[in-house]
Amino acid sequence: MSDYVIRTKGLTKKYRGRAAVDNLDLQIAKGEIYGFLGPNGAGKTTTIRMLLGLIRPTKGTVELLGKDLRREKISILRRVGSLVEYPSYYGHLNAIENLEAIRRILDVPKSRIAEVLDIVSLTKEAKRAVKGYSLGMKQRLGIASALLGSPELLILDEPTNGLDPSGIHEIRELIKAMPTEHGITVLVSSHLLGEVEQMAGTVGIIRQGQMVFQDTIQNLRMKAVGGINLSVSEPESALWIARESGMIGQYRDGLLQFGGLNDAQVALLVRRLVENQHDIYRVEEHRKSLEDIFMQVVGEGRSL
User: Fold this and answer.
1) In a shared domain, residues 73 and 196
2) Distance (Å) of CA 125 to CA 117, 128, 135, 146
3) 7, 141, 174, 224: which sits with the fewest CB atoms below 10 Å from its CB?
């Protein structure tokens, strides 16, 4: 059996000759929270719909839970829970009644309703009409619906979209508990890196249907290479002194800018400048944030 809960090879979906998803290779291991990132329109929802068998790929393969989705679709999807876009519900019914309608289709024990309501912290609100729920509560009910069948894989498409900070926190903490407390692997899509980095251990960044980065959050952070900016007297002369010491930089926006210097190199540079009678007005560390890197990737289409 495959080591991956989700694996796609060359997954492609074209509409009228245009590729909405283009040769996408996803690899998601058991027990992960995988953040599927990209701007709106990048192809995230199209990919998710192909993973769930809702639309057919133009080409490529999808394996879920070690099995080919084309050959064993029904048996595979019984082990998968999903929430794509906004959850559907009957507003005049309460949470228990909404879940009962789904439970009958899935043919799972009635006791499972109480279990999933407890997981999403809706037990106290279970007998209220859902039309009176906040948006965050409706999202949690949607996740409860996805959990009814005791899935091994949970796929969530923009689950925090439109929520206030309190609702975002609730959904985030709920997702973070899935692998550790319930043994569920999670794929969560979003266009917000800052949100996903608080939940996911691994991320895939998609732009215009193509994967431009797929690795751990930690390795993405390592891409945020630090730099040093110096404000000095006679900057052009100072730049030559730096080059003689093996440190290549540039003079820009009134500052000497150097990338990737370690502490010893910074100390050496400052010492050499002082020895050559330069006044040093300011030394600043500049480090790209993950958000900077994300915007660079999705804005310029550069692969990391």
Assistant:
1) yes
2) 9, 6, 14, 18
3) 224
Alpha-carbon distances of 28 from 8, 32, 79, 153, 229, rounded to whole Å: 9, 7, 16, 10, 39
Q: Which two tokens stand for residue 86?
A: 């906004």
Find out whether 121 and 140 touch, Cβ atoms under 8 Å.
yes
Amino acid at 301: G
Tens digits of residue pLDDT in 67-114? 999 999 999 999 999 998 778 899 999 999 999 999 999 999 999 999
Q: Which of 195, 221, 247 is where one domain is finished?
A: 221
Question: Are 206 and 43 spatial neighbours (Cβ–Cβ below 8 Å)?
Answer: yes
Does residue 41 fall inside a structural domain?
Answer: yes
Cα four-point dihedral sign 134, 138, 140, 144? positive
Alpha carbon separation from 70 to 20, 56, 60, 62, 138 (Å, rounded): 20, 9, 11, 8, 32
Instruction: For residues 244 and 200, state if they share a domain.
Output: no
Mean pLDDT computed over 167-173: 92
CB 144, CB 99: distance < 8 Å: yes
Mean pLDDT over 194-213 rounds to 91
Beta strand extents in the chain (DSSP E only): 4-15, 18-24, 27-29, 33-37, 59-64, 67-68, 80-84, 153-157, 185-190, 202-207, 210-216, 226-232, 249-252, 255-259, 280-287
Is residue 138 within 8 A of residue 130, CB to CB? The reply is yes
Contact 97, 110 (CB under 8 A): no
